[in-house]
Amino acid sequence: MTASIKQTTDKAYDILQTERVNPLDAIFAPKTVAVIGASEKAGSVGRTLLWNLITNPFSGTVFPINPQRHSVLGIKAYPSIFDVPEKIDLAVIATPAHTVPKIISDCVDAGIKGAIIISAGFKEAGAKGIALEQEILQIAHRGKIRIIGPNCLGVMSPISGLNATFASTMARRGNVGFISQSGALCTAILDWSLQENVGFSAFVSIGSMLDINWGDLIYYLGDDQNTKSIVIYMESIGDARSFLSAAREVALTKPIIVIKAGRTAAAAKAAASHTGSLAGSDAVLDAAFRRCGVLRVNSISDLFDMSEVLAKQPRPQGSRLTILTNAGGPGVLATDTLIESGGELAQISPEIMNSLNEILPPQWSHNNPIDILGDADPQRYTKALEIAATDPNSDGLLVILTPQSMTDPTQTAEQLKPYSQMSNKPILASWMGGTDVAAGEEILNRQGIPTYRYPDTAARIFSYMWRYSYNLQGIYETPVLPTSDCNSNTRDCALVETIINDARKAGRTILTEFESKEILAAYGIPVVAGSIAKNVEEAVECAEKIGYPVVLKLYSQTITHKTDVGGVQLNLRNPEAVKKAYSLIETSVFEKAKPEDFLGVTVQKMVKTSGYELIIGSSLDPQFGPVLLFGAGGELVEVFQDSAIALPPLNTTLARRMMEQTKIYKALKGVRGRESINMAALEELLVVFSQLVVEQRGIKEIDINPLLAIPPTPDHPGGLIALDGRIVLHPVEVEDHQLPKLAIRPYPHQYVSNWTLKNGTPIIIRPIRPEDEPLIVKFHKTLSEESVYLRYFHLIKLSQRIAHERLTRICFIDYDREMALVAEYENPETKETEILAVGRLSKLHGNNAAEFAMLVGDRFQCQGLGTELLRRLIEVGKNEKICCISADILADNLGMQRVCEKLGFKISHTNDTTVLKAEIDC
């Protein structure tokens, strides 16, 4: 039993590339445009808008709207939108801010589906502007009109000729989709692009993103066949979840390159005042970009250089670059930049070294950079490149040429042409000089080998390429399911909720160390157990029970950083030491804080700290909500500042990638004869910690510092112990709906439940997860040709169906955008888990509808499983507020048709007699 969505939901991934109507087509491909505020006044925005529309034919009709004039620029004008004789697709509005709400209301009443608000004076102007925006948004939602702006330059679609901007010129046709939050920067880049011969498929000034945001435009350009890469100038991210969801989906097939203003505090303040938006941490933004496969660059030239190189050359699989040069100095400059930007020089293998020795003069560098000397002719370049290209230790090549007396830049470029499309590594070139090398540069660029005037630029571009490739690998590398499985049944959530609720009811936002450790232990995180002692006698009694040596720590409901007030005493070996330590802590707190801050001490076993002290924590970012931190811990954590940031939730791959961002990561793997810690256990602990942060939304801040990491021992097989814990809660007056929203939707446990097949076999139906890729491979191996044909409308080879690149899009899903349910059971013979069926519900881009697809294994058909999966998908659709669900079904697929009819779907014919359409309203 199968149903298919004909692989058309995501055009970026589609084979069929079936056309669909997107609401944003009204803005990017309108047939009729109304210019509201069209004017004859020289130099006015209204005049420039109208002029640009009528002088750049886009196969549409333009209607000026101006109640004061009968015509504008010789074109008949209309008093209002209601007087226009044709139905309008797009309204371009250039009137004062206070008039815009009424105009949008008129557009809604006239059935217009797209609007561009050029006008300024909204949230960037303060409270009145914010109120105007909210009024406009309410009106827009009533009429389902989509809006770009306000406070923007407008939109160009150079492929069709649409120029709905007040820019002074039209962009060239090309394959780069450009989106900018700054209209002024748009005009500067437009001017630069004409000089540099850079072309665009779309050129969008997004303004303050009242309605249409980054996510909407990324989805739209991701679906656009004319767009090969997406470049963005960003000042604020706006709806973080929407951006991450769209970027993560599209980045796998189309590079998304961002330059984000506001890296420094002063620039962030300026950007915030410009956009009227909150600015989050720049480090958190970097982590978010890594998480969704977006590449961040720091200059406008790099923005477009990366767009070009990723369209022409394959992504490197590693960070190792081989530099081939005819001059030592440029090679050294390139090396410096390469190392500084995160790349590394490839180590020449012995075989490659021997081969180079055979064809190069004895004076060559015998190292990387490969300096083939200033008298190198085209043949020497070619032979050296041919050898270097085969080096397995290298992930990319940079060829540098300086014009010297024996050099032939043009012929050398001709000789390099066969290497322009190596399948597994990129090649870049730096032809240094001016007119002498211009012909060679043109040959290389025409052949698809990007050229750069300076070698350090080329080296930096390679490092960017590697960073982009590294980010994508991290997203789509299949993780390992932790042994704990992060199963909610293994956690004592009731205890955690009791601790948090009791504290909030008491008006406390700070948990004691004892309470914090109870929460950590409830999630299976190893802690040093302790006992509370409210007087010195109890402290001695607890120490005797635990066994010496012990540690005394301040017990307080108001102080979290105990060492700041002298609240920690270590290595106490007898009762007298315990008594003295208790007195010292009490006295110190009285002096440095307040007497009521001292409630006693906690007594713990002294743990040898011969391992590494780490910190794991979480805090709130104003744009992304809860964020995770990992790094070197202990008392000097702020001094060393060796940490990495990531967004929850994590899987084992993302946890390892987070650790790789730190310097201490290398030490944890074992250095100078020291044994490695249990890295797999640390990955799992990070995953569990991220689940704690995701599930316990009442927690505002949490950290484990230090987390002691030691090589595994019989007493501590994981080698990880939380020595201290700190948790800060949201105040009790913060209600559940006010708690910060996660930037990435976590695993939807609410859709996990048991079910029984007709034959009595118990199964579990649950959402798919990235770790399921091996199970999906096994599932596909069980399918018959008939099942494959009915699902995909044609036969697909098994090797294609189980390719990792394909399965990443099936298993690594964004639960905000789609929901895939799998049915699994434990095979009674092999005791292994197997997947029996998959049902998928995918939201369509640009609207609130969804399509479903289903595939049930042959052995488990006619067991009611298909009906149950589809019933659950309908329930998911209702919960997710989907308006309607549909699917394309082959006319031969009678079983799927019966299931759909049973659940209330309407079956109708399509233009294709072999395909039926099933639809249901949610």
- The coarse overall form would be globular
Tell me the β content.
15-25%
Low-confidence stretches: 3-19, 271-279
Distance N to C terminus: 23 Å
Biggest β-sheet description? 9 strands, mixed
- Helix/sheet category: alpha/beta
Number of strands: 38
Number of helices: 30
Radius of gyration: 32 Å
In which range does the helix fraction lie? Answer: 25-40%
Mean pLDDT: 89
Describe the 3D structure:
By secondary structure, the chain is of the alpha/beta class. Helix content is 36%, strand content 22%. It is built from 30 helices and 38 strands. The strands form 7 sheets. Strands 1, 31, 32, 33, 34, 35, 36, 37 and 38 form a 9-stranded mixed beta sheet that branches. Helix 2 (45-55) links the parallel strand 2 (32-36) and strand 3 (61-65). The protein starts with a strand and ends with a strand.
Compile the SSE list and pairings.
Elements lengths: L1 E2 L21 H4 L3 E5 L8 H11 L5 E5 L5 E2 L2 E2 L13 E4 L6 H10 L4 E4 L9 H17 L2 E3 L5 E4 L4 E4 L7 E8 L2 H14 L3 E6 L8 H10 L5 E6 L5 H11 L5 E5 L4 H11 L6 H11 L2 E3 L2 H13 L7 E6 L2 H13 L3 E2 L4 H10 L10 E2 L6 H11 L7 E6 L7 H8 L10 E5 L3 H13 L7 H22 L16 H13 L7 H10 L7 E4 L2 H11 L3 E5 L13 E5 L2 H18 L8 E5 L6 E10 L3 E8 L4 H4 L2 E4 L5 H9 L3 H5 L10 H17 L3 E11 L10 E3 L2 E5 L23 E4 L5 E6 L5 H9 L3 H8 L5 H4 L2 H8 L6 E9 L6 E11 L5 E8 L8 H15 L4 E7 L3 H9 L3 E4 L5 E7 L1
Parallel strand pairs: 2-3, 2-6, 6-7, 7-8, 11-12, 11-13, 13-14, 14-15, 16-17, 16-18, 16-19, 19-20, 35-36
Antiparallel strand pairs: 1-35, 4-5, 9-10, 9-12, 21-24, 22-23, 22-24, 25-26, 25-28, 26-27, 28-29, 28-30, 31-32, 32-33, 33-34, 34-35, 36-38, 37-38
